Amino acid sequence: MSKSVVLTHGDLDGITSGAIALLAFPGSDFYFTRPSQVHQDLYRVVKDKPDIVHVSDIAINSKKFGEVLRALDRFPESTEIHWIDHHPMTKQERRELEKRVDLVHETSPCAAELVYRTFEGPLPEHALRLALYGAIGDYCDDTPFAQTHFDDVDKRTLYLEAGLLVQALQEIDYRKESKDLVHQLAMGIKPSSMDDIVSLALKATRIEHEVFRYVQQNARKLGPVGYVLDMPINGYRGKSAKFSAYVTDSKVGISARSSDHEVDMSIRRRGTKVDLNKTLNIILKDLEGSSGGGHPAAAGASLDRNDFPRFLQLLAEHVDKHT
Q1: What is the pLDDT along the chain (323 residues), one digit of tens a residue?
Q2: Are strands 252-258 and 262-269 parallel, antiparallel or unpaired?
Q3: φ and ψ at residue 297, rounded to 5 degrees
Q4: Alpha-carbon Rg of the chain, whole angstroms?
Q5: Which residues pair with 137 in a beta bridge?
Q6: How far apart are CA 284 and CA 27, in angstroms?
Q7: CB–CB of 276/249 below 8 Å?
Q8: CA atoms of 252 and 268, how far apart (whole Å)
Q9: What pTM did the predictor assign?
Q10: Among 2, 28, 165, 321, which has the minimal tally of Cβ within 10 Å of its Cβ?
């Protein structure tokens, strides 16, 4: 294993965060991870005693936080650990992380902006574009940093490049093709110059229109919550959650996929200030084996399939109470 390791999320903000981290720590081993599994990946990484570990765009899973801390405690004191994130965390979680890592945490910017600002000095010029792609992709494009740098370029071109990535990622297996994409972005190759990315983005856009029509015909509504279950196509979960809220004129939209024993879902809000992250922390406490969290406006959750109707009812009651 390399003397440095980069762990990041598989969405556009995570991918651009990871690419910037590779520029800050050239030659690093690179892995995708998730909030529910980052502790396992840290346990695996620590065996090789790297000098530097970089984690970005990974939310704190409150139910796994103890395991995360135990994994971090296994690293030698000489290991330099950077944890850079923009997801909400409690004061206690922040205090515990700060004892173990170099923590950079703000909730307004995207993770890519935070990684860029942390290591800005030695980074090449194209790293700034990566930070702005991440900001656009994660709806964090209204920060002072983003607005300042949009004035330096024609931002319409940046939105085109970021849009190609957002769309193409709907059709990419993040465990395989996305790794190659990270390295290409780190090399400074623009998305519009990647023929496969352009083709996949166009394909995904055509599919998205079909997804909207499907949601329009199949979404259901429970009080202030609109939802669609088991779309006949993988992916497009965040988009179809937004569509579910819109076509049912709801405050919250859900796109859920069920397996034999579990329901996994993306959740988005619409026209309300209900904090989805805080909401999930409250209602999931009553559902054994469940997990979830994210941002105030966008979150995800997984739970036992049999608990899904109860989850919908609890969510609807909470949204009604707080709007």
Answers
A1: 569 999 999 999 999 999 999 999 999 999 999 998 999 999 999 999 999 999 999 999 888 899 999 999 999 999 999 999 999 999 999 999 999 999 999 999 999 999 999 999 989 999 999 999 999 999 999 999 999 999 999 999 999 999 999 999 999 876 667 899 999 999 999 999 999 999 999 999 999 999 999 999 999 999 999 999 999 998 899 999 999 999 999 999 999 999 989 999 999 999 999 999 999 989 998 898 898 888 999 999 999 999 999 999 999 999 999 98
A2: antiparallel
A3: -100, -15
A4: 20
A5: none
A6: 40
A7: no
A8: 6
A9: 0.91
A10: 321
| Cα–Cα dist 132/138, whole Å | 10
Q: Where are the alpha helices (DSSP H) in the chain?
A: 12-24, 38-46, 65-73, 91-98, 111-119, 126-137, 144-150, 155-168, 177-186, 195-218, 237-247, 276-283, 308-321
Burial class (CB in 10 A: 0-12, 13-18, 19+), 230: exposed
What's the one-letter identity of residue 82? H
Alpha-carbon torsion angle 233, 236, 242, 243, nearest 10:
-40
Q: What is the DSSP string of 154-189?
A: -HHHHHHHHHHHHHHGGGS-TTTHHHHHHHHHHTT-
3-state secondary structure of 120: coil
Which class does domain 219-321 fall in?
alpha beta
The single-letter DSSP state of residue 6 is E
Give the sign of the dihedral formed by CA 107, CA 124, CA 151, CA 131.
negative
Residue for token pair 């429970």: 222
